[in-house]
Write a structure and sequence with these properties.
about 120 residues, alpha/beta
Length: about 120
């Protein structure tokens, strides 16, 4: 057994339609390892005209490529006229957005139950 490769993902991005909105959920470690997943998730999120909610409550770490994904999704959604909100972001996400001077650019929504 090769112990150097753990098949369990340490982070991810998934996209679902919930109550008329597109929810993009980021969880765990969001970094450059998710580049391909981020690209397909962005395309999926922008495929409809539904408002987009980026849920980062499950993020434990985010690097510059993860932040770039969130900001690129925000810019693309703005261009298509889709409202985008950041749901109850993890402290890690808010601190890094603040460091970039972008904390006030994204509309925040408090966490709430989603079916």
């Amino acid at each position: 057994m090769d112990l150097t490769e753990d098949p369990t993902p340490v982070g991810g991005i998934d996209v679902t339609a919930v109550q008329g909105r597109t929810v993009v959920r980021l969880w765990g470690e969001v970094d450059g390892a998710l580049r391909a997943e981020a690209s397909s998730s962005m395309a999926q999120a922008l495929a409809s005209t539904a408002p987009i909610v980026v849920d980062t409550t499950g993020v434990t770490f985010i690097d510059s490529s993860g932040l770039a994904f969130v900001l690129q999704l925000h810019l693309a959604a703005t261009e298509t006229g889709q409202p985008l909100t950041l749901r109850d972001p993890h402290r890690e996400v808010l601190e890094k957005l603040d460091m970039l001077g972008m904390a006030g650019e994204l509309e925040l929504e408090p966490e709430r139950a989603i079916a």
